[in-house]
Amino acid sequence: MICLGLDTTGEWCSVALVDEAKILAIRTQKIGRGHAEILADMVQDVLAKANLKPAHINKISVCIGPGSFTGLRVGLSFAKGFALPHTIPIVGLSALHIWAAKADPDMKKTVLAVADVKRGQILSQVFTNGKPIEKPKLSVANEMKTTAKNIVGGGANLLGADADNTYICPAILAWLGMGAIPDTHPAEPLYHRPPDAKLPGGRSL
Question: Distance between CA 44 and CA 192 in Å, rounded?
């Protein structure tokens, strides 16, 4: 199987092509903004480096957040547009899942993955032996109590951990995607809080 991993949810724009055994091609760039302008070229570049065509891709794995609203939509829209003419299945994995997998490659630990979602809040999720044991939870950072030893992710420092890395490895994203199916891991955005916009009369969207 050949899987394409895509992440546009944060400061990085990252793309990787992998098979079951190795990374075929990878490209990452810390850009802040402007994912839409370079994502297609990055995908074309990794395909060329791997000497592959879109029809060779068996699955697309895209990061669904949490992260930048605009960046997240760029990745999801591109993945769906790229997949449609080639009938490639798409799965979605969260940044929390990818951070936990990177910290526990042997799947033998309990890991708390944490994202800094601003306004003094964090989105966290516990993984044991590589599997989530709860749904992502939104908390106030300075009120959250935890006894976790392994705290990872872009918001780990808010809980007093040394680890604080927002980078999402697209190769890990792709490998995780190989074992996922669209029914259980849909390519739908993981929003950390409801939108601020309101309908007339103050109604929520």
Answer: 31
CATH code for the structural domain at 96-159:
3.30.420.200
Instruction: Note the pTM of the prediction, 2 decimals.
Output: 0.91
* Nearest one of 122, 106, 110, 105 to 169, comparing CA atoms: 105
What confidence tens digit (pLDDT) does each residue in 103-118 have? Answer: 999 999 999 999 999 9
**Backbone dihedral angles phi then psi of residue 32, each to the nearest 5 degrees:** 80, -75
* Contact of 43 with 199, CB cutoff 8 Å: no
Question: Does the 3-95+166-178 domain belong in CATH 3.40.50.720?
Answer: no
3-state secondary structure the chain: CCEEEEECCCCEEEEEEECCCCEEEEEEEECCCCHHHHHHHHHHHHHHHHCCCHHHCCEEEEECCCCCHHHHHHHHHHHHHHHHHHCCCEEEECHHHHHHHHHCCCCCCEEEEEEECCCCEEEEEEEECCEECCCCEEEEHHHCCCCCCCEECCCHHHHCCCCCCCCCCHHHHHHHHHCCCCCCCCCCCCCCCCCCCEECCCEEC
Give me the pLDDT at residue 165, please.
Answer: 78
Domains 3-95+166-178 and 96-159 share a fold: yes
Each domain of the chain, given as residue ranges in start order, spans 3-95+166-178, 96-159
Q: Which two tokens stand for residue 185?
A: 């891991």
Q: Round the average pLDDT of the chain to a whole number and report it.
A: 92
